[in-house]
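User: Could you check the structure of this?
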Amino acid sequence: MIFKRLLTVLVSLVAIILAGSCGYMLIDGWNFFDSLYMTIITIASVGYGEIRPLTENGRIFTMLLILIGSGTLIYCFSICTAIIVEGELTDALRRRKMKNEISRLKNHFVVCGISATGHYIIDELLKTGRKFVVVDKDPVRIKQMADANILNVEGDASHDAVLEAANIRNAAGLFVALHIDADNLLVVVTAKGLNPTLKIISKAIDEESSRKLRQVGADRVVMSNYIGGLRMTSEMIRPNVVSFLDTMLRDKSGAIRVEEIAIQKDSPLVGKNLCDTGILDIEGVSVVALVTSDTGSYIFNPPKDRILAVNDVVIVMGIVDKIMKFTNMTL
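Assistant: Sure, the predicted structure tokens are below.
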């Protein structure tokens, strides 16, 4: 919008200058440079004298040029002033900078929907230092994200262009947390069409929607009512466990988390046993389980001499910074 207004200003100025120059050339027979110079000093009202004697028709044309040209110039200045005062120019520059930053992202996450669930997702991604982009069509919620310096895209997440703007093709995962299951279903279909390898976690209200979301490509579906029921039961029968997990997750610094370390093909950990990797020696970090690459089964509290293979996943719990430091060293 701002660029359209600026283009209008530019076109108006160019049009009046060209019209004035052509007028002097046709009426008084001046050359182009003299005509251009006379036009500019006339509409700018600088008070210079006539560079050549004007005919009567030339003076009539000059009077018209002063009225029309000065009005056009005032209009252009008012538009530019309004853009600066209203902050549109700043917003446009910030949006362009954000667009360039999003285009450079790789292996980031995309969060669709700033719902109550979406807020918790965003909060957790911030605490754990993940790169992500938020997509929502509500301009008020998007402005809140922008004010918090969170990368965002305003628009309907079910549209290809909007997900493309969030750099969905280079994303590692997608969170779909819209209010209506049908909208979540449409976003999953759209995202899978753009990036078939994308990992998608979707929110669902009812069980039938959960089944359909899996059918169209969602890797995991989280039902808020189901999770709420499990939580209430856990509060009753295992309160200390719940209290511990709450303390860990609600920590403002996000210092303690359960994380996973995937063993890639070129990782230096391939072929080593857990003891030799050094992870068991990191203070504040504990190995909870191992997900085997061959069967996908879980080995809880795996033995120290367990040999790590490609695509194994080590599940650890502890201080996030130390876990991330170890993970980066093994990439």
